[in-house]
What we know:
The protein is an alpha/beta fold and about 300 residues long. Helix content is about 30%, strand content about 25%. The protein has a domain at about 5-150 and about 210-245 and about 260-290: Spore Coat Polysaccharide Biosynthesis Protein SpsA, Chain A (Alpha-Beta Complex). It is built from seven helices and 13 strands. Strand 8 (about 175-185) and strand 9 form a beta hairpin. Helix 1 (about 30-45) packs across helix 4. The longest helix is centred in the last third of the chain and has 17 residues, at about 220-235. The model is unreliable at about 10-20 (pLDDT under 50).
Amino acid sequence: MQSTIVILAAGIASRYGSMKQTQSFGPSGETIMEYSIYDAIEAGFERVVFIIREDFADVFKGILEPKLKGRIQTDYVFQKFSSFTEGWEMNPERVKPWGTAHAVLCCKGTVDAPFAVINADDFYGKDSYKKAFEFLKTRCDEKTYAVIGYQLANTLSEHGTVSRGVISTNEKNEMTGIVERLKISRKGDKIVDDEDGHLVELPEDTKASMNFFCYHPSFIDLCEVEFQEFLRDHSKELKAEFLIPTVTDDFIKRGKGKVEVIPTSSKWFGVTYKEDAPIVQREIKRLVEKGEYPGNLWA
């Protein structure tokens, strides 16, 4: 079966203020997503599945299809607010999708082989894709998933707090838990999470999930089951989200299997805030000048 990378591109960037999924960052107008696809192709991935909003499909395809044609198979999944919600009463004011695990659930019937999943607006680095591809080909099964682990210090924004999945591990470097910390920032020489005014210090080398996971397709079925449990408690809420780290943590806690933590030497960077954009452009420019990427990815 084809090695598949699933890209989460349906989110509404409330803090960013525009469609950062299609914003140009590279010297020839490349999006961050294009660097991810380029790295994935180099690593051996043969198929990319984009999870997008249906009203955005024509613009999205118009940007990417001419560049990717003949390089990698492309498929599209639409994440709709109403998907998999039959029988539940919703908040009539809600328009926001249900989160990243709901997005993966929308791949049901489309993704039927081991897959990696990433965010559209994050730059993950070549090493991550190589290690993810190798894991999917050699060790991934119904009881063995993986997460690419980044050093927390390498994932912060200079322009505000960030949310990160903080990973705890055992002596086998397997994930024992993942906690979504919502207000992480650097205060002086320390990294802290602001929990309702109480600052919790986090070590520099804390392993963080940047939503780069590797799954067996049975994970999609698990999302389907847990989404119904989620709706039972949250269907009428305006902002509740059904997230990948939560389902992955439940996979461990319920004794269904293990999640390897794969450390990477790659540096992560992304655009949470508008002010992050020049930093991302500068980092990509530096990598191009070092020869890690061509000046035009698809020339």
